[in-house]
């Protein structure tokens, strides 16, 4: 599912216009992004948690040449699914 399909699904599920659904989705992603930039986290009980994690500097390999390269330390976004979401996905 891409962003357009997600907007269509949200509009249908919530009884909103596609314009309103797009505005709501954009507001959600912008808000989560701003919070993660501040090293915060967004926890949606039953769904999951968006947070950041630190990645240490490490040595990697250039796949084309095999030469060793240094990969600098970074902060990466992470999503951890909540128990209720895991249970729904794994329900048979």
UniProtKB/TrEMBL annotation:
A Pfam family of this chain: Bac_DNA_binding
Entry keyword set: DNA condensation, DNA-binding
Keyword flag Cytoplasm: no
Any GO BP annotation: gene expression
Keyword flag DNA-binding: yes
Taxonomic superkingdom: Bacteria
Protein family: Belongs to the bacterial histone-like protein family.
UniProt protein name: DNA-binding protein HU-beta
Source organism (scientific name): Butyrivibrio proteoclasticus
